[in-house]
Write a structure and sequence with these properties.
There is one protein chain. The chain has 431 residues and is an alpha/beta fold. The protein folds into three domains: 114 residues, Methylthiotransferase, N-terminal domain (Rossmann fold, 3-Layer(aba) Sandwich); 227 residues, tm_1862 like domain (pyruvate-formate lyase- activating enzyme, Alpha-Beta Horseshoe), CATH 3.80.30; 60 residues, Beta Barrel (OB fold (Dihydrolipoamide Acetyltransferase, E2P)). The protein has 14 helices and 19 strands. The strands form five sheets. A six-stranded parallel β-sheet has the order 2-1-3-4-5-6, sandwiched between helices. A five-stranded mixed barrel has the order 15-16-17-19-18. It has a three-stranded parallel β-sheet with strand order 7-10-11. Helix 13 packs parallel to helix 14. It is globular and about 65 Å long.
Length: 431
């Protein structure tokens, strides 16, 4: 049996593609491994969202070639730079685009260099493939759609994955049931924009209906929705999240900026987001709102940034990420004038994060003395347990640190009393 290794970079959506690749290999008689030292052939599923992600992917490729491996490069970096990759790293054995990975077996079995990259990608989820999960634990991601119909000024994704394509509700529910049968407690719905789910195949937004169907799955603990879009945050969706007991009261809605002038330059919805945030909090009492902002976008003046600082102080987001603008070739913003000095952009990043740190510390302190259901992530033999509340997504948000003599299992949802807090994490004990 041939053994193939895979290294996955990038976001949760790319992770799902990596697991689909492993599923294809398994269905075709390959033995798969995540340890590149166990085989001569390695697939590297790359990310190309920002420059740092590209550098990380390229570093992996070069290290593997230095070890004498046969390297097949897939994913976003392949889609973005197919010719440049082969030219700069001639030792690469194949370059495979974002929508061409279903042909991975043919590519592996060829002894010639292959470049399989569709210049006009359209991502259609391969429903006939059963994913081979790279990580098995409390949570698992389910991709409900891919591609994007928006053209935000800073984002390369639509050009790498094509327009928006939803999966059918029945397929998603069936996959979720399989995950639960494998022991997954929390499923996390991902797409470039989850709130547009269903419009392309059902002619209307169907995320509320999908959530209702998923909520009926026995033994499923939590359902989490990521990557909402501001103009799609309907009352119907909010009311559905509020009423369904398994849906985490957690709204992930990257806003990117607050000033309408910058939002227009970003080709984002340019309106006052305050009423929308207030509506979320009114319709879902106690909901945690996570957002993300970009600082240093071309044309961002000090007055624009101060507007953003004031907005963050006023809105008191429960969770927040900040990114320094990354100039990406192929995006609408690439040739925009009035670029912001890197030093200034970094300074703005630090200032905004400091504001949020104070907001987060105060919010976490408000949980002290309360009891919260928490999902167990991992535990040690010494009794140290890492858990999460429903207000925290894995890997990007905070955790609950617990010391206990009780035997707990990853994926269990336990009642935890919060005893203290830090800026980003909580400390508690299992009752």
């Amino acid at each position: 049996m041939k053994k193939i290794a895979l290294i996955s970079h990038g976001c949760a959506k790319n992770l799902v593609d990596s697991e689909l690749i492993l599923g294809i290999l398994a269905q075709n008689g390959y033995e798969v491994t995540l340890n590149e030292d166990e085989t001569d052939t390695v697939i590297v599923n790359t990310c190309s969202f920002i420059c740092d992600a590209e550098r990380e992917s390229i570093r992996s490729i070069l290290e593997l070639i230095e070890k004498g491996k046969r390297v097949i490069v897939t994913g976003c970096l392949s889609q973005k730079h197919p010719e440049e990759l082969k030219k700069e790293i001639p030792e690469i054995s194949a370059v495979v685009g974002t929508t061409d990975f279903t042909k991975i077996v043919d590519i592996l079995e060829s002894d010639k260099y292959i470049c399989r990259v569709n210049p006009n990608p359209e991502y259609i989820y391969p429903e006939n493939i059963e994913r081979q999960q790279i990580t098995m634990g409390a949570s698992s991601y389910i991709k409900i759609a891919d591609g994007c119909n928006y053209r935000c000024g800073y984002c390369i994704i639509p050009y790498l994955r094509g327009n928006y394509h939803s999966r059918e509700i029945e397929c998603i529910v069936e996959e979720a049931k399989k995950m639960v049968n494998k022991g997954v407690t929390e499923i996390i719905l991902v797409a470039q924009d989850t709130t547009s789910y269903g419009i392309d195949i059902y002619q209307k937004p169907m995320l509320p209906k999908l959530l209702e169907e998923l909520n009926q799955i026995d033994s499923l603990g939590w359902i989490r929705v990521m990557y909402a879009y501001p103009t799609m945050m309907s009352d119907e969706l909010l009311d559905t999240i509020a009423k369904l007991d398994k849906v985490a009261k957690y709204i992930d809605i990257p806003l990117q900026h607050s000033h309408p002038e910058i939002l227009r330059m970003m080709n984002r919805p340019a309106f006052d987001y305050r009423p929308m945030i207030e509506n979320i909090r009114k319709r879902i009492p106690g909901a945690a709102i996570r957002t993300a902002f970009i600082v240093g976008y071309p044309g961002e003046k000090e007055e624009h940034f101060e507007h953003l600082c004031q907005f963050v102080q006023e809105m008191k987001f429960d969770r927040m990420g900040v990114f320094i603008y990354s100039r990406e070739k192929g995006t609408p913003s690439y040739n925009m004038p009035n670029r912001v000095n890197t030093r200034i952009a970094k300074s703005r990043y630090k200032k905004l994060m400091k504001i949020q740190q104070e907001v987060s510390a105060a919010r976490n302190k408000s949980f002290v003395g309360k009891t919260l259901p928490c999902i167990i992530e991992c535990c040690s033999d010494e009794g140290a347990v890492i858990a999460r509340t429903e207000y925290d997504a894995p890997e990007i948000d905070g955790v609950v640190n617990i010391q206990t003599n009780k035997i707990v299992i990853p994926g269990d949802i336990e009642t935890v009393k919060i005893t203290s807090s830090t800026e980003y994490d909580l400390i508690g004990e299992i009752e």
